[in-house]
Design brief:
single chain; alpha/beta; Isoleucyl-tRNA Synthetase, domain 2; Isoleucyl-tRNA Synthetase, Domain 1; seven-stranded mixed beta sheet; four-stranded antiparallel beta sheet; 23 helices; 28 strands; elongated
Length: 832
Amino acid sequence: MKEFPKKYNHKEAEKKCQQKWLENGVYHWRDDKPREETFVIDTPPPTVSGILHMGHVFSYTQADFIARYKRMKDFDVFYPMGFDDNGLPTERLVEKVKKIRASDMPREEFIKVCEEVVADAEKEFEELFNSLALSVDWRQKYMTISEQSRKISQLSFLDLYNKGEVERRHQPMFWDWIDQTAIATAEMEEKELDSFENYLYFQIEGGDKVEIMTTRPEMLPACVAVMYHPDDADKYEGKFAITPLFNVRVPMIADEAVDKEKGTGVVMCCTFGDEQDINWWRKHNLEMRIIINKYGKLEVEGELNGLKINAARAKTIELLEQGGHTAQPKKPIKHMVKCAERSGAALEIIPTEQWFVKIIDKKERIKEKINECNWHPSYMKLRAEQWTENLNWDWCISRQRYFGVPFPVWYKQDGSIVVAQPDELPVNPLVDKPKGYEDEELTPDRDVMDTWATSSVSPQLSAWGITSKTSPISGGIEGGGKDGNSPHPDPLLLGEGGYILDKNRYSKLFPADMRPQAHEIIRTWAFYTIVKALLHENKVPWQNLMISGWCLAEDKSKMSKSKGNVITPVPLIEEKSSDVVRYWASTSSLGADTAYSEDVLKIGNKLVNKLWNACKFASLNLGKLEGAANAENCTEILDKWILTKLNQCIKNAEQEFERFEYSKARQHIEDFFWNDFCDNYLEMVKTRSYGEQNGGAGQQSALNAISICVDYILRLWAPIVPHITEELHDIIFTSGESIHARGSWPQANLPEDESAKKAGELAKEALELVRKFKSDNEVSIKFPLKTLEIQADSALAKALQDLKDCTSSEEINLVESAEVKISAKLGEQKAA
């Protein structure tokens, strides 16, 4: 055993441990075990947004608890780190940091600037994750914009294209006019915004006026029909209406979707004001009048031309009022509006050319795969099921941006599509040409893939492959493959340039065992990854999902700069220590949001100090231990009791860790450490362990038990607080091997003695009564007792000597009783 330092210096110890782990390759995936002894984690690739926040600490640390536990359980753990470094978030960061606009410079030049910024941001993330002691294998790091990731993402597209599961369509799409791109449903959020109900008069051709309510009067130039409920057919059937201001003749059409109780029960259909307009346009084969351009401005004749939406709305109302077309004063309301999650812009619907993955026709199959996964906690599965059930759009995977994975696609002069072959990837169609078309004039596809289209293959990015099935997947999903409908019905190409870059690696790493992620991206990351695995392999991408909650401010509100309640992780770790911050993260249950708490951090600090002091105290006499610690050498009843409790603690902790319930595992470990070991066992055997009473065999029995307990306690705590446990284990046991090494988890094979368990619990209860007696008499715990009589079960008899010593009793007696009681007399006050 090494000499104990006077105190624990977390700053020095944590840096030393982190360097040791990295240099010794403690976290390396060795690829030396069969698949069933390999544990594969599909790590969330953080968006390189330049902002390190407490959410990273919260969720990534919780995943690390499981990674460390599995490694200590002798699994060959594959724990990579990825960076989701392409797409809109990165572009917005670059434009902000560099004070540039992507649209104002050559595309390739902007991409180079993006690459420089993300490289710096990734260094910051890596430093944070190392300071948190995330046990990732940095040799397995991937970036979603790297050459290999581009290749695998393009293979994903190619496979779906060949199977007929992805297609390019010109259709109405939600458009973010700030970021200048189409977006998918999962990237939207509904915001409650102020608006007005506006009541307008439409003239019925050859008849009376009809009153219509709208919140979007600026869409009048795009009106293509007036809709009414079939119950009102007697009033409107076969008639036409004339739009105010623009005098356009439009049909009046009956439809069950009209809500008679909303507004006036008559609605204008415009192309396109909302999703219902799209439904009516398709159902009734209406004409299309597009008046909003991609910049969010109106393109119409007259005074509204060139105005942005809000200005056009105000001007339209003004013109309607001047022309006498308003039926009643406008009414202020609040209503929900679909907005872009990233830019915050209220979305418009504009017909554009986009790439879509077909998912609407596969809802039931997707739900089957959702149910094949094990969700932790289980109730989170419902979110994925409900999201799937409520979908009414296919997945749009194309974006009109710059820094992303390009589609390996070109267009011939006749509009037909040319796609790259697997051995050509990755390609940049703006620069490259497909084989065989070098001399032909082709138009490159300028779009890039949505960031979710690339991060949704994160398991495959780690496994270095996309699919072992190029034909249609079984179970009734149509399209592509060898049925003659695929442009490329060739069989799977293995080896460099094929759909799988490394066959052995792919079979070992896909599907993964665990996906840790936050609950708010179930509808995006979890859903899309399940979709991709279904379409590529007809498999689930992982067996288990471990869902984390949010980190909230101390008052349980969301952290935000505007509120001034943001806690940044780097200075917090520096001040409090990584172990203390990790302890705080362990106190949250799976899936639950947890508030930042100084009180919990104080408890974590108390734990670190207690581990240090308890182990230092317990080890004082371990140098007197004869030979290696062995449970068979524990002959005294309380030593057998503590080993019985320890063995039960190991089994309980294992059971919870196996269910990914790290917080419940910690509770078992914490209860044993504080309650059984520190507060009671060490107190009861202190005298015997010093050899002051009943030396020889009695002392050796205690030292054997203490050594085993200290060793196992440190191993049990190791996944939660890795630095203090490494430091203490190195000081006390000097084995040279890291406590976090593969296979270092304590075996639950200690002898369990039911009679000793009973005696130990009785002794705990009796000691607590003595403590209360002394407290009531306002004397210290060390104050001597003249006599101590304990009424208890006779099983306590073998523990009486230890109780006599720890209670400072001159005389102790046991009276058999079913209930534990004591009677005592204080001894004489000793001189100070």
